[in-house]
Fold each of these.
Amino acid sequence: MPRNLTYREALNEALAQEMERDPSVIVMGEDNAGGEGAPGEDDAWGGVLGVTKGLYHKFATAGLRPVAELMFVDFMGVCFDQIFNQAAKFRYMFGGKAVTPVVIRTMYGAGLRAAAQHSQALYPVFTHIPGLKVVVPATPYDAKGLLIAAIRDNDPVIFFEHKALYDLTGPVPEESYTLPFGEANVVREGSDVTIVTLGRMVHTSLAAADELAASGVSCEVVDLRTTSPLDEDTILESVENTGRLVVVDEATPRCSIATDISALAASRAFGALRAPIGMVTAPHTPVPFSAALEDQYIPDAQRIVNAVKPVAEWRR
Amino acid sequence: MTDSGITSVAMPKWGLSMRSGKITDWVVAEGDPVAPGDDLADIETEKITGTLEADSPGLVRRLIATVGEDVPVGAAIALIAPPDVPDAVLDDLAARARAVIDAGLPEDDGAGPVVETVEAGGRKVSYAGAGDSGDVVLLVHGYGGDRNSWLFLQEPLAARHRVYALDLPGHGTSAKDVGDGSVDLLADAVLGVLDAVGSDRAHLVGHSLGGAVVLAAAARSPGRIASLTLFAPAGFGPSISAGYVRGFAAAQTRRELKPLVGQLFADEQLVTRQVVDDLLAYKRLDGVDAALAALAETLLDGDEQRIDSAAAVRALGEVVPVTVVWGSADRIIPAEQASSVAAVAPGAAVRVIDGAGHMPHMERPAEAQAAVEETIARAG
Amino acid sequence: MADTLTKDQLLTAYRTMRTIREFEERVHKEFATGEIPGFVHLYAGEEASAAGVCLNLDERDTIASTHRGHGHCIAKGVDVGGMMAEIYGRTTGSCHGKGGSMHIADLSKGMLGANGIVGGGPPLICGTALAAKLKGTGGVSVAFFGDGGSNQGTTLESMNLASVWNLPAIFVAENNGYAESTASTWSVATDNIADRAGAFGMPGVIVDGFDFFAVHEAAREAVARAREGGGPTLIEMKFTRYFGHFEGDQQTYRAQEVAHARAELDCLTRFAAQVTADGSLSAADLAAVDGAVAILIDKAVAEAKAAPLPAPADLLTDVYVRY
């Protein structure tokens, strides 16, 4: 059994091992080293939530496969042109003659009372852009393998880390390894209802699945891992087996991953579906500050259970 | 069996790191008679599923653990006793056993198996040991496996021997660089571990490619080897499933890997999602696929076996006890090659296990264990 | 000034400017026939800026451009035939017809692309300048942008970043008086774009954009500063574009300065006058270049018109290296 690391430590290890292996990998971002230029503050931070801590001291030189940090994905507005009009499109616009191997790591997600401009789950926006790849790991094992894969990938990758997952622990091999993009992970097998989900919602969905199992509903939980590319085959195969689908997505509902997966299943697995597709998402609102409201905003296990039961029971 | 004739059937320890298991199906019911070797229950662990067999005769009087619950290793899950043992006695024992299960898993004291490493031939080789007395036994897995392949054997053998299992180069947590991928390079690892544990007389057990490796190690250092137990060893005939060997190295997804892994077993149900996931995670480590590709070319010459183990076993078979064990339903290396072994080493014992596939040490662990013990005993 | 440049350099300068001029004049003509798809934004009138700056650059150096990018492309050595085919949307174009006029690029020549986003270039050259600095190539990176682009947040951020990171970068503001139809006198808060340089910790210089030699000298200094680790410079060219913001622009917003500029200020006319006056080049030298360029442009247009369009399958290619 490999040793346990936190999600944060798994990311740090991925960065360190890749920088060790390939001097052209560089890390960039505000406060990633520490308080640059402020005496006595060197490496104090390692990024706002500590992901890059210690790297500055190990890797002073650099090269050009940047792993840039977009601290909170909510800040995308101030640099979005560079991401979606420039980096995403160089290869296509320049007739295949450009390679843009950049990774943009970014934090997403609600639950820390960080309020509307520090809590969004904006991966649908990036998923929508041809030329970008979008990765949303749910576990420390997935985080390290997908980040190493992202660094070695020659396309622009937006790498989404849920802020509430940084302290999650799990087994992580010491050696370097990669996970492929476009491969979803069936984290729980089941026969009655397929739950497709991603990121932090994987854990919430598993908790809901436990509760549902106690009342006799067997859920299969599919963790997308990457939304672009998307593992359509695994999703469709699961829906073909269960005939019932609920998508759980922390993002707001319009033009979200929930709607995207629902449309996929409705158009490609229509014959297998035995119930309407259910979606559990945040409401169409900004993220509220007050704890009482934010806890309502984020889908929890009970909401998932309440959404799955009618889908499981639905009969013509 | 206690003096009163009651046998307490415990959750077995399969593998050095197993801490608990779940019964997925009781094969027997209360009141059934059982004989040694009869299936009692299907058990699922983090690593694998297997079937627990009875090792003594009697009547199944109480089933204590229920299907689906986590049971700590060593906790009693059933009671087998003759019909004349009073119910009150059994109820009392069962209640106490039930309380042990209900108390849940003890705190992980972190005292899992200690994994050691040794530098052999300039490569880091991992190994883990169990048992603190008796002869040294070294278990060597096959292509694409690791030291956990022996999870059904290592603990039981450790009752009477010092039992080590290593990860060959390119596998497990050993260094992934396999150099020229030759059998001799792999044999360096075997000899290196024997050095590390201070053994000058060891029983070697090898599976498939590991069988050829232990033979090569023994041929280089015959004075150090007390006996050889070979499970479906490579190098005794031209036939081999080249499709399996190359396919395993090339597979990139679960979809590609699952059917290949299924070919290893006579009963494909043994291939759980966890088994495939663990293999996929192994293959995704840096350097593994390159190592497997190199080893595939060690195993194969076109579509036939490249290794020739005959000379080694001929030389050794006159000096040390050799047993070869083969599953009759082996789809990777056909079981008839067992007779080729016997042909070149007339003193070798041959055991064909009816209905087992290429992994008899996982599919029929009781018989596999018996074969190893018997070979060790012949060594005197 | 003419005597600090060799005859070869002078011929190169003239050929660059003449090629740009004839290319743009021809595209202007051809666009009016309706055969060229989309938008084109012509650089005619501004040739001295592209030529004067780029003559100071070599293969280590990169430039980023604007929607008005043909001049920069030509000055940096992008193949003229490929450019014309790209403008016509042909598969033989610099970008296989996938980019068009506003996205012509040739990374092998350090040309990071024309850019459809105002202010899109400066952040890019901060990246290439950082790479050059970290790799120790001695290369410099130049961002060309307009008076409209000089107001973009991305441009201002890039200047600040280039300063604090001491990057080998050069910011060239090509002030032709208009951002689309908005006069720069209205939209730029300072009298000169170059006045902003001090606010970003770098030197600023104003140059007559019609004067090749003035441009060349200002750029030479900025390039030397950048190569020697002295950090970025802001150069402001003042001149006029001869055509509209885009082809089809009725230019009702303009003062009548184009006729005057063509007659009295034109960079090619002035260059020719100066080099023939001091004997650096002869009229015959210049005429030879004129003739060669005419043939080059004719050939480019003929080949572009005859070249195949991309195949339907090309729609889906090169979104990713590997998906």
Amino acid sequence: MIAKLLIFAFLITDLILIVTIAVGDHTMLILQPHGMIANEQRQTMIIATLLMLTIVIPVLTMTFFVGWKYRAGNTNTKYTPDWDHNLKLQLTWWGILCFVVLILSIFNWKTAHQLDPYKPLAVTTKPITIQVVALRWKWLFIYPEQGIATVNFVEFPEKTPINFKLTADAPMNGFWIPQLGGQMYAMTGMITPLHLIADKTGEFPGSTAELSGAGFAGMRFIAKSVSQSDFDSWVDSVKQSPQQLTLETYNKLAQPSEDTPPTFYASTDENLYTTILMKFMAPSSNKSHLQNEATKNEMPGMQM
Amino acid sequence: MEQFLLGKLTWSALPHEWFTIGGTGAFFALGAGVIAFLTYLKRWKWLWNNWLTSVDPKKIGIMYIVVAVFMFARGALDAAMIWLQQILGASNVPGVLESQHGYLSSNHFQQIFTAHGDIMVFFVTMGFLFGLINLIVPLQIGARDLAFPFLNTLGFWLYVAGVVMINCFFLVGGEFGATGWLAISPLSELQFSPGVGVDYWIWSLQVSGIGTLIGGINFFVTILKMRAPGMTLMRMPLFTWASLCSMSLVITIFPILAITIALLTMDRFFGMHFFTTNFGGNPMMYWNLIWMWGHPEVYVLIIPSFGIYSEIVSTFSQKKSFGYSSLVAALIGVTVLSFSVWLHHFFTMGAGADINAFFGIMTMIIAIPTGMQIVNWALTMFRGRIIYSSPMYWFFGFISTFTFGGMAGVLMASPATDFQLHNSLFLVAHFHTMIVGGALFGIFAGITYWWPKVMGFRLNERLGKYAFWFWLIGFFVAFTPLYILGFMGATRRLDHYDASTGWQPLFIVAGVGLVIIMMGFAIQILQIIVSIIQRKENRDTTGDPWNGRTLEWATSSPPPFYNFAVIPEVTSRDAFWEIKKQKKTHVKYKDIELPKNTAMGIYLAGFVFLFGFAMVWHVIWLILASLIGCIACVTIKSFDENNEYTLTAAQLERMEKDREKYNFLKADVLSS
């Protein structure tokens, strides 16, 4: 009786669940991609699931059917208490499972290389480079080609490959824009590349996926994809912003702060990104904490 | 001077926040209650002589499980606090909470999920596991004791020291690590976590980890060297096989944990730079090391449950285990493969496609032996006569949850998809499915199955089945929303989020699931209480309540403190099944040697605890004093050669006639 009641309660809650998702206007970000990479990742996910189901469904059905059929109450069935071995059966099953995993593995190897975040996208459009710095607890985006910088907001032209170059001046973080593609860690003294592209215009939520301290939940940003002309005029408007990102303002920005609203910088120090990288490469430069001018000739950060 | 006497300790370390006062109060109330109860019953001496200083693995097993149950309650409270915060953490909650993101500060929230993870893995699942292995493995292999009885009590008391250490911050310090259950670097370095929280994490895990390592070595040697005559490796019961695999993993990986934590300690205590961001430190190295331990660790948790399911399916299908060698091969396969998959925890660190794909494929290969076990369990049931007692319910619950959890795992083993699922709530749902649906359901099945053997009476079946339904349904209601939330882009460990994400309703559903699970847990406690009250009706007089097949059923329930008066001769796989078929022959008793109780495990673990505590607070004199204490204890114990006593054949014969009186729960200690 209680079991039945419980199953009933279970169905009700599930129903609520489904209705909430169906009625709500929020998105299943991973299943509704807006970029080539995210799209292919979704595809990979679906194919892998279907492949697995081809073996999981028969095994589950078999287990439950056998469990039901050979219940003690059902005395019409055969009972062979000492039947404990059958080489053919064993080999067949090991074979089937190995075969399924072999197919999955080949698929895995192929997709892992195809969708390697380090690989530049095979798109002819000229890519845009955006340097990303994870700070406590906000994202700093530097546009080296445009000479501007933003915090917790990133804008880029649609259908243009974006070369994100991630680093950190904080504990490890994971840079993630689900609707454009998978995440990548941002780490001190290193550059991790991430190649993404947006297929259309729109605003996509982004966040950090790795715990980095007290304010990490607030490290959310909007990734905005716009047309090339809109992007150009946006760059011009940012250049009118009163704020400049010098080493001095950067040092202030790098102090821990939570839930930072989007901020725009009209210009950036040319060497800032290199300086942030080098800070963790040579111990001596750490003490002076960015106060000394980094020269252009210094070696670039370790490219992973 | 003050520095020397007190280290970093100040008055502000004493409880002054609501949760530290509450926690301290709760522990003191519990302690006072226990003390009053024991004093009232005049049971202090009995407790000390018969239980705390005991080296009997059966008693140590029970103590492990009791501690694990208490820690489960503590871990579940953490889960409830996490859930409440995540419901209230949406930015649209009207009223007072609007501006402040839930009812907890983000740092406090992070401490709670850190403690939740560590407690559930180290002190609940590991505690249950070592409890069951202690209770059952010696009986299954026909042994009277372990290879190293003293190390067993030491291992248990180090585990208890770890438990005290992880709760100690309530009383002194008021702060636990806020760095995730593995204290990820560089976040756990002084630079980013200057407080004592991470130090408490370090010493709690270090101390209990050494206890686990000692226990692992002990059981590994016991299983290899102390089996009954005739029990070859390929005649061992499957739970013993699973324990052997699990313990061999423990021996291999726990040294890695000890060293990794020791390096982190050096960073924090001496200001070194193993895993810092600068001065040549390499945080990525920490990730590799901790997961080289961490991934096999989850197999340490789940492999014994595989063994339990094998035993249960065979017993309740009233049939031999189908494909025994296949099952053994699968266990060994999982054990060996578990070493070669750790990198799948951080594909996103950017090791490159070749390396990621290699580790992804190794992970998928584990699905083969795991799947093979399910197939063999199905074939064991095939042409059997399955009795649906509650352990079988847990088995089917396991099948229905674990298969989907496994699919989610294989999905994440593919680097291409993992980049989208990593560190999302999908991942959280996946590993909860594996540990709750896999390991914990197996532990519950095992406890129900072996309860009559250990306690002498069965658990109430009706309540057991209710508890199962609450757990299973609660499980689905709690974790299905998390899978969905993962697809919605919800990352783990968020103390607040934007209401427009639409996550809040799903968090609420998950919370309802948690409540259902907690009701299941409450029913389990009720089940134990009711069963104790009804113990006369449910008494197991045969020693073999389920028509069992393996040696633990050959002795009475509860077993006498010496387990077997005469060690049985094993002639086949299902040893007891054969013995039952044979006619009883006249037995000839011989003198046997049994280990004496010792309190040295408690003293030694006490000094180790003080050492850890002194290291947390940098109290130099206490560090030195406790070290000297440890060395003194070990020295004294090493020269104590009088650690066994003899039970003569005549005594044994007399006891065998009145086994009821000499069962291990009742018998007073003879050695002292």
